[in-house]
Design brief:
Layout (H helix, E strand, L loop, with lengths): L1 H34 L1 H28 L11 E4 L6 E19 L9 E21 L2 E6 L3 E8 L5 E20 L6
Antiparallel strand pairs: 1-2, 2-6, 3-4, 3-5, 3-6
Amino acid sequence: MMRKLISVVVSALLLVSLVGCGTDLGNGIIKEYEDNKEGIHQELSELWDAFLEEINDWSETFATHSITEDHDLIGNRERGADNYVGTYEAAYTQFDGEEYIFGGTSLKRKDGGDLYATYSLTVQSGEATLYWMEGDNKIVIAETSDEGIYEFTIHAGKNFIVLEGKMFTGTLTLNVSQNSSKGD
């Protein structure tokens, strides 16, 4: 009987000391957090930014395969700093299909999102639509012979300038540049 009593007392003392250690450990962790709160938040912020940059890089890599490859284009494309800017000139003869000329699927473009396209579309026969794809929205830039400037802002997701033709014969000249007047 005495052994059982000693065993119960020792067990109770061990349990109380462990609970005390747990409390001290918890208090120590809280104190450490309070003392280093700014540094911890800064490191978490840097980790989050690095994570977003990796996702953006992956997204841009994916987008490289979304625009029409140079050898599959009817015309000649010269890219600028990335897939979003550059020049394109083409003469089409009974073209059926779509060409994703510039764009991508970035979360955030490194050089800023405000761009403008200077274009000249000549439709001799058939149908042609030059449009800006923003997400799932198609915003028509030109459907007939026309020339002008189209300003747009890239947002996270799909952003492409596309020419769609149905038995289209004609020409397209396109220059997409950074819109420096908006301060990006």
